[in-house]
Amino acid sequence: MDYLGLSFEQLDETAVVSLLRSRRAEMAFAYLVTPNVDHVVRLSKLPREAPERRAYRLAAWRLCDSRILSLLASLQGIRLPVVPGSDIVVRLIRDVLVAGDRVCLIGGEPGDADMLRDLRPDVVILQHIPPMALRDNAAARTAAARFSVDADARFTLIAVGSPQQELIAAEIRDIEHGRGTGLCIGASIDYLAGRENRAPRWMQRLALEWLHRLLSNPRRMWRRYLVDGPRIFLLAWRFRR
Hints:
Blueprint (H helix, E strand, L loop, with lengths): L1 E2 L2 E2 L5 H10 L7 E4 L3 H8 L6 H8 L2 E2 L4 H9 L9 H12 L5 E6 L4 H8 L4 E5 L9 H14 L3 E5 L4 H11 L6 E4 L3 H6 L7 H5 L3 H8 L1 H11 L2 H10 L1
Parallel strand pairs: 3-4, 3-8, 5-6, 5-7, 7-8
Antiparallel strand pairs: 1-2
Helix pairs in contact: 1-5, 3-8, 7-8, 11-12
């Protein structure tokens, strides 16, 4: 379903879990992205040929990760199932991985690989931590993509923020021997590691998760939610017209 310049999948969480279960390590690399309001607003400012836009177009699956986005779409008669990336990562670890699987983690903090091993000691975890300022460091993004290919993993979790993670995923796809499935997961590892807390369920249901994140870290989040984010209403109004 097309909305605000992106084509979203009509898949709920159960369908996504089933899809991931069907993905094998030897399959040609394909990746999943989870656009939210921040992603859509940022992409709206870029020309169609921008590498960031290409990265979203090349994704095999685009899942809505924003209840605000889903609500705006519903007001225009468009159904966008909400499938948070954080929930998908939990289901992947709990319900999709099988003994002996290899998982590559791009990003996170030192010790996150051990945290994942504690959750799934029967799975091989490999981690690569790229340098800061990754968005402007093409060589570092290429190194991360190469690490993923060399890891020969069934799943690659790319947790370096957007749009860096989507650019890396697209680069892995461009490498001839890229295999497995990539998930661009943003802050999901921070939630698993306890560095950040997700909003209570009642706030999630009321589309107030953004407010929880703003209040939890106002210095880092104020511009995203109070300056850039409101542009989504203008984009939705233009789309309706």
